[in-house]
Amino acid sequence: MHTAVNLWPLLGIAVVVAGFLLRAHPVLVTIAACAVTGFAAAFPVAHILESIGSAFLKTRNLPLILLLPLAAIGLLERAGLKEHAQASIARIRSATTGRLLTVYLLVRELAAAFGLTSLGGHPNMVRPLVAPMAEAAAEARIGKIDDALRQRIRAMSAATDNVGLFFGEDVFVAFGAIVLMQTILRAEGLEVDPLHMALWGIPTAVSAFVIHAWNLRRLDRRIRWAAMREAGPRA
Amino acid sequence: MIAIDFFYLLVGLLFAATAVMNLRDRGNPRRFSTALFWGLYALVYLAGERLPPLAAGLLMVAMALVAGFGLVRPGRPQAVPEAARQASAARLGHRLLVPALAIPIVTMTGSTLLKDVQVDLFGFAGALLDPKNLTLVSMGCGAIAALALACAITRATPLQGVREARRLIDAMGWAVVLPHMLAVLGLLFSEAGAGKAVAHIVTSFIPMGSPLVACAAFCVGMALFTVVMGNGFAAFPVIAGGIGIPVLVGVYHANPAVMAAIGMFSAYCGTLMTPMAANFNVVPAALLELPDKNAVIKAQLPTALPLLGVNIVLLYLLMHQ
Prior knowledge:
The structure holds two protein chains of two kinds. Chain A is mainly α. In chain A, 75% of the residues lie in helices and 0% in strands. Chain A is built from twelve helices and no strands. Chain A has helices spanning 11-21, 26-40, 45-58, 64-67, 70-78, 81-90, 97-113, 122-142, 147-169, 176-187, 194-200, 202-234. In chain A, helix 7 (97-113) packs parallel to helix 9. By secondary structure, chain B is mostly helical. Among the domains of chain B are: 82-155, no CATH class; 179-318, no CATH class. Chain B contains 15 helices and two strands. Chain B has a two-stranded antiparallel ribbon. In chain B, helix 2 runs antiparallel to helix 3 (53-68) and helix 9 (194-205) crosses helix 11 (232-249).
């Protein structure tokens, strides 16, 4: 029986870190890490390939979540789903930047929780709509905004999209992370109901909303101070 | 019984269609290698368990090489002009959301209400939905319902749906297989004992005598590993195998569902803090023309760090549920 723990398999983790740092192609980094991990555990080549192969077959349930809805989503996009979502977001009327972004956070998180992760994102929602609307709301209150504040508002718009997406999607029972967790736990001999994992994600999802909404209120306060500074010398 | 194999077959056919459409698309600069990549992936789904593990392993290596050397490119599918899409969006309005919402509704119905439904049809008797893969099978039914509704609402044919799916698969390219390959790496990590090695290191530095310390080590470990590896999917198997399963479940008898859910969300806190997750944190900074390329990460820190603290407390309070 082995008493010493073999630390060499950790080399695989080092390969992932080095690969991403060097900006190598993620798929090549992953396959290289597989090879290094296998060699570090002193597996023969054929054994490594067999392990990879059976794992590849065992985890082929994971991409189903992404792939099965594509035909329906693609048809809807062709019929203007994204344009409709953009028009709906553009109709949000809100007095302040912070409140506008809070509404977007809520919509994004709820949509992701229902599996609609494609309704949003940086290129098709944040850049053309959310960020300009957030800037416009601030300008409507204080007139001209300086570059530092403008950049802060844009960065918060992108952050809001990320927070809403990440902490909404894990609440949806069929999301990829949940299938991944189920597969990994199954390999370790633990059978877990995906519904329970989605359920126990809800407290964190709610906390994420509350914390980020509070940060958006702080952004509003910062905009108010900027407004007072603008108004100060003139008064 | 509606089994998961039926959906594997459908996805295999979808990849085969993607391969054929790319092969015939002269607008694709790499149509042969692109068709090879999707064709190999189709084989994984069509042949499935009939494929010997060694062959499947070689197949994955071949796919990784084709993708890694930039040989998978999108074709040039016909696109509908933006004005036409806007007109159609104005005409159909909220009706466009109906098929999209059918997916979660059918998924939830299938995995809760229809869970124990038995059928007795044409000499077949048994569960209606594959009980081992209940959510995935329910979701597959939801996707088919959504496709039918989308065809009805937009007056398109299912074949057009396949063309649109190919357009989206093309646009994602090799990113479609990355989560799948990371999951393979995760399973290989646990087979090679990376989790044991992490557990060994962690337990020799941090005393796991109190459950609160163990919860904190688990959540912070998840976040830190995601920061260095850039992806929660890569970090989860290592930390779950190193701390979550042996310590939280093994020693403190935590509920594995709570451990997994809060663990993955702790990993997401890490994703909010790392430039390695370029798509979420660095690309948007460029898109929004921000001179500081870490501006988005800086905006996310005041949410990510307190949330990580909340996760530790939630895990500590809820793990015995």
